[in-house]
Amino acid sequence: MNPSSLQPWVDRPKAGDSSEEHAHRSMRFTRQQTAVKELPLLVGDWRRIMNEWLTELDRLVGLEHVKSIAKEICAEAAVQSLRKEASLRTLASSRHMIFMGRPGTGKTTAARAIGQLLARLGILSRGHLVELERADLVGEYIGQTAQKTRKSLDAAQGGILFIDEAYALARGGEKDFGREAIDTIVKGMEDRRDDLLVILAGYPAEMQYFLSLNPGLHSRFPFHVTFPDFSERELIQIAEQALQERDYRLTVDARAEFRQVLRTLRDQPNFSNARTVRNVVERAMRKQAMRVVQLEAPTRVDLMNVLADDLRDGKGTASGRDRVYGGWKDVAQPATV
């Protein structure tokens, strides 16, 4: 058999071909072959990066909606990359986001995690988070607002510009400089769309009203993410995780007390989900320290255990005695809620 008959048909000389034309066509085919051969490897790389990121995110309580959106972004970016390798048309997608939720529902945490993922994927060059509010963008005189906003956009280049309580930019009326900040941000989003992601965040009702005042903004942010309040189970998990990271643990009675504390706090208008839980945990650690320092010879168990009294505000009627025997059997286990 003639060895030349084994060559792909596009690699064979055609009648009337010059040697230069044949070489050019052969090189083009070689590139196409290489691209097709590398596609499975590229897909595997994207999957690996995504799975590693999800594994890290699993240590955070909740945020399932964020994981779902991240998978969409990852899949879309991967396919566009593969289409480019295969010499197919690609689309420049906007990934700007609106985050709506009460304080402490994980908005900033989610933004930081998304930035890290997009940096690993090469979508953003740095993936860092620049967190701002109205005071960081709006100036006191003409020209200052645009200057401050452009400086903030420069600082966020390659990462995420996260504007908390974004609706505050529109509170001052027609002559307020907040509208100038909005216009500058919108222009910056377009000019820097290849290496900047903007996230506007705030309370759900206020954000909906803000978007209704600025109809053009709605379409510029394709991802609208609602962050629900954490459930009681999730809040307990957050508390236990925060304690375990510091080598503390709740006793059985302390865990029951913490559940009651949560139910009281959640009825208050200033309840801030995970933020409130962290405050309760840190206060309990301080009260535990005040209790332990009075012991003659604190044991390792004494240093680790958080008792029910450590979670009370001093107005309760508890006896102050917890079921602690020095072992793990009377320490609340995170897996059972």
CATH superfamily of the domain at 90-227: P-loop containing nucleotide triphosphate hydrolases
**H/I helix tally:** 12
Work out the helicity level.
40-55%
Which overall shape is indicated by the principal axes computed on the Cα atoms? globular
Using the coordinates above, name the CATH class of the domain at 90-227.
Answer: Alpha Beta
Mean pLDDT, nearest integer? 79
Low-confidence stretches: 1-14, 22-41, 314-337
Strand order of the largest sheet: 2-3-4-1-5
As a percent range, the share of strand residues is 5-15%
* Oligomerization: single chain
Largest sheet: 5 strands, parallel
The end-to-end span amounts to 73 Å
Write the layout of secondary structure elements.
Layout: H1 19-57, H2 64-85, E1 97-101, H3 107-120, E2 129-132, H4 134-137, H5 144-156, E3 160-164, H6 178-191, E4 197-202, H7 204-213, H8 215-220, E5 223-227, H9 232-244, E6 249-250, H10 252-265, H11 273-292, H12 300-304, E7 305-306
Helix pairs in contact: 1-2, 1-3, 5-6, 9-11
Describe the structure.
By secondary structure, the protein is an alpha/beta fold. Among the domains are: 90-227, 3-Layer(aba) Sandwich (Rossmann fold), CATH 3.40.50; 232-311, Helicase, Ruva Protein, domain 3 (Orthogonal Bundle), CATH 1.10.8.60. 52% of the residues lie in helices and 9% in strands. It contains twelve helices and seven strands. It has a five-stranded parallel β-sheet. Helix 6 (178-191) links the parallel strand 3 and strand 4 (197-202).
